[in-house]
Amino acid sequence: MTSVIAAIFLTSFKLIIGFLTGSLGILSEALHSGLDLVAALITFFAVKFADRPADSDHQYGHGKIENYSALVETLLLLITCAWIIYEAVRRLVTGTVEIEVTYWSFIVISTSIIVDISRSRALYKVAKKYNSQALEADALHFSTDIWSSVVVLIGLFFASLDFFYADTIAALIVACIVLIVSYRLGKRSFDALIDKAPEGLNEKISELLGQIPEIIKFHDVRVREAGAYKFVELNIHVDKTLNINDAHRISHKAEELILTNISNIKVTIHIEPEVEKEQI
Fold first, then answer.
1. Where in the chain is the domain with CATH 3.30.70.1350?
2. Residue 249: its pLDDT value, please?
3. What would the CATH number be for the domain defined by 2-193?
């Protein structure tokens, strides 16, 4: 909610100063902040609904809502890039560059940098604590604003020295930064939506299972991600002479080991008796 309020303030401030000065760099930043506002609102509702427990219709919970919201944020960023690049190219081709650089131009961008640093740090901290992809995406938006605002600030400085094309060039650089962020964010969201295994998680689970001598072997380790949670299914082989209670104790030991070392994970283990190949 604090991020929503911050985005409203920054978007309004940048739009007013951008239109008054005619700075494409500031207007591009205003659009970027406007999308941050939309993204923050999407994140707010996504996190709220994604936190709902599993039910009969959504047996794996509602975590994928976070992944969908992150993907929507990516599309919004791409729309912003298209407008910025179009307007920047138009100004460079036509030579129509009219900018009035005032002290308000520098005040709005400097204020933006301070607010963005504060919000990105707070969001990253909470995103890490709750393993929230939606909150991390929102933090990424604000952290991107920091770098793009610095670029625009440099453009305004050169524009104050009558090199007005610097503002347009700064806007293009902002667009490139947003494109890079959009790609990274979109890829992570898409990977989660198509149930791609989180990088390195299979190896980590294999390493943990190798620490339990009672497990003769394991196979069919399947990992998927939905919002803040990861879901793991796997098969383990134990001595065929064990009774049900002992076999269950081993599976419980494996489950606890995984839960202790990997946060926000749900584990399902299938137990199989280890038999000689000629008996199969």
1. 201-279
2. 92
3. 1.20.1510.10
Average pLDDT, the chain: 79
Q: Where in the chain is the domain with CATH 1.20.1510.10?
A: 2-193
Burial zone of 190 (CB within 10 Å; 0-12 exposed, 13-18 middle, 19+ buried): middle
240 is written with which tokens? 């065929």
Contacts of 200 (CB under 8 A, 6+ apart): none
pLDDT tens for each residue of 34-46 = 777 777 787 787 7
The percent of residues above 70 in pLDDT, for the chain, comes to 90
Tell me which CATH code domain 201-279 carries: 3.30.70.1350
Q: Are 38 and 8 in contact (CB under 8 A)?
A: no
The share of the chain scoring above pLDDT 90, in percent, equals: 8
